[in-house]
Amino acid sequence: MPIVRVLLMVLALLAALLGGAGAMAQPRETEGASDALDLARFVERRAGSTSFAALDAFGESAMAREDREGLNRLYHVTWTVLNQGDFGSAALWNRRLAEAARRQRDDRYVDIAHLNELTIRYDQGDTTVAAEMSRLARQGRDWFVRAHAARLTALWLMDQARTGEALDLLASAEADIPEDDPFAATAHAGVWEVAGMGLKDLNDGVGATAAFRRFEIDYSNPDYPRPDFDSLYNLTMMAVQVGDLQHAAQFYAAHHRLAQRAGLESLSVYDASLCATVAHARGRSQEVLACLRPYGEDLGAAAFLALDALPIRGMARARTGDVAGARRDLDTLRRLEAGADVGFDSPELEAEILFAEGRAEEAFRVLRAHSEGSKVLAARQFSAGIHQVTGVMQQQLAERRSQLETARANTGLQQAIIAIAIVFLLCAAATLAWQARQARRLKAAQHRAEEASRTKSEFLANMSHEIRTPLNGVVSMADALARRELEPQEHEMVELIRSSSATLERLLSDILDSAKIEAGQVTLERAPFDLEQAVRDVAALWRARAEEVGVALEVDFDPALVGRVEGDPVRVRQVLTNLVSNSLKFTAEGSVRLTVASADGDRVAFRVSDTGVGFDAAQKARIFGRFQQADGSITRRYGGTGLGLAISSTLVELMGGELDCDSAPGEGAAFWFDIPLPRAEPAAAAARIEPEVDVEDRPLRILLADDHPANRKVVEIMLSATPMEMVAVEDGRQAVEAFSEGGFDLVLMDMQMPVMDGLTATAAIRAMEKERGLSRTPVLMLTANAMAEHVEAGRAAGADGHLAKPITMDTLFAAIEAVMMEAELEAA
């Protein structure tokens, strides 16, 4: 609890205890009266703007809600009705609150309803419930429950003249309220209402008015109907206690107007009691009797206020000559006081009666005895109050000493922490400087590595182009020679040239793929393709080779996989080609089996097994390394670079799988992997235009652009046996100029040429077609640039196809047929 709040409470309590005994009874203007008047006017306006019928309607609508807000509204209705002394209605609304809270399983409002039930019992005279209220104030499972229990316990403490303890409890309860909770204002309002009543009992008018203002204005919810006007009752009683009878009369008049408007019997009872209290303080005995007359001799519905009403009525009767009536009130009062743990007012009434009977001496003795007893009681109460104040002060001083000792210890600890922090900051600064230096070095090294990678990529691209250009002449001429009628020995020589050039081409492709993988430049495509067709294409590619060496090449394809899948068809074919090629290389007899089957989910399992030479566990550890064979003699015996399996392993990993193998010497080998290949939508049936004649028999007029004479000669020889006409140029500019003259069915375009490269020339041709409104002429890139980025660059420039050198007659005519068919389909 903040010490400032405690000190304020202590000062208020001391002022009340020291000043209360000497309070003057004559009418006077109290400090803060204007604030009290403003508050009274506000309460009258607020209560007059609604009604208890509106409060009932508010409660009925709250019962239809199934949330905590609805429960809080029922709590508001219950407590407002309970404060009017209408215990029957309060019990009804509280049962509704309890039922709704249990239905919603809201423990907070289950406990609130339980506390309300205890309050109803306490207000009707059952003081045994105080222990349970006090327990919940200390041990309630929810801060809201503890706050409500604290205000109820504080009221009980005030009834026991333990106002200091009550205010201390309320201060602790308020400190426990979380400010960010949506129901914090409700709890604050309840705490300040009871705090105002405690300050009123201590005759602290200013403090009580401020507390009631917080209850009525600062923390009140304007959306909740408030027909109650309890604050007017409390302001009236406070004004009477401090002798401010003028304002007491004004406050009572406002209370009386609202009580008549409300029309509730319970409020009429409190209004009559308040009327009698103000009239007694003003010395108007006839008004006292008039206020209480509607309730008869036994006080009727006001009987529960008899301990307050009987002394006032008895004195009024004695002062107006009704001594017998006063005696009856005295007898009744003595019976009630005998069973109540409260201060006695009967001696003062007895003295009034004796004085009215002319027995002044006896009246003086009784009054003097009562005065002495009152002094002793006041002294005891003062002592108890001082004890409460000093107890709180001692507790706060002990806490303050503990805080100071902790602060001293913390000061030393803070100095040590500061020293450590300085050392840490110096170390951190040094570390950051070192890291910055290392980062600069790493960045420079990364830049050098990237530059080296770019240089290597450019070198490989140039090397690929420069090697493929002369290789194109060898492969193409060997292919052309093989198609002619030669002597057996000459045919054998040509085949040797073809096989050697094919090996050289594959070696070149493997080296380029390995370099791209190392540089992280391999990208996968996702496109729908026919998996079965791709597998059977691989088998068809190697079946002739298998038959040459006497090995059976078998395919086992799972029928469940028939149809199109999504993946990279080029890389799938490349991996399967490498595995089948590898198995054929090491299998002299028996078979090679390619198996494709469904796996978990959308994964497909591939397995290539053979009956070849096999390998042992030590060889397996090296088999997926670059430029590795099972042993060094294999290169000499079987050939190959040792790159195929390394490339395949990396590609499988990129596709989401893992390539593995198993073997034993002399028992063959098996390689397997599985990759995700989800199902693709079936391809839409497309109209296919079958050519009337083979492309080789069509009289096409072809424009060839290539800067290398050998390449131009190769294409010329290949086309010489066909009815096709070829016009050859040496660079891109000549190609554009020749195309502008028109009449070409197809353009074969090299990529790297002087003056104007093939990509620029292709883009210029497409622009010319668009400008002149010409139909699209197929452009086939016929180039030694074989990398994927080259293919993409060609398509971006407007090419329809890409054929990498070296070429054969089969690959050339197949590529020509593909682009011509595509053009005819678009034209159709």
TrEMBL record:
Q: Name one Pfam family in it.
A: HisKA
* Enzyme Commission designation: 2.7.13.3
Record's InterPro entries?
CheY-like_superfamily, HATPase_C_sf, HATPase_dom, His_kinase_dom, HisK_dim/P_dom, HisK_dim/P_sf, Sig_transdc_His_kin-like_C, Sig_transdc_resp-reg_receiver
**Residues where 4-aspartylphosphate is found:** D750
**Reaction catalysis annotation:** ATP + protein L-histidine = ADP + protein N-phospho-L-histidine
Give the source's domain of life in one word: Bacteria
Segments spanning the bilayer are 416-434
Top EC category: transferase
Q: Where is the signal peptide?
A: 1-25
Domain called Histidine kinase: residue spans: 462-679
Looking at the keywords, is Cell membrane present?
A: no
The protein's UniProt keywords, in alphabetical order, are:
Kinase, Membrane, Phosphoprotein, Signal, Transferase, Transmembrane, Transmembrane helix, Two-component regulatory system
In the record, what terms sit under GO molecular function? phosphorelay sensor kinase activity
The chain positions of domain Response regulatory read 701-820
Q: What is this protein called?
A: histidine kinase
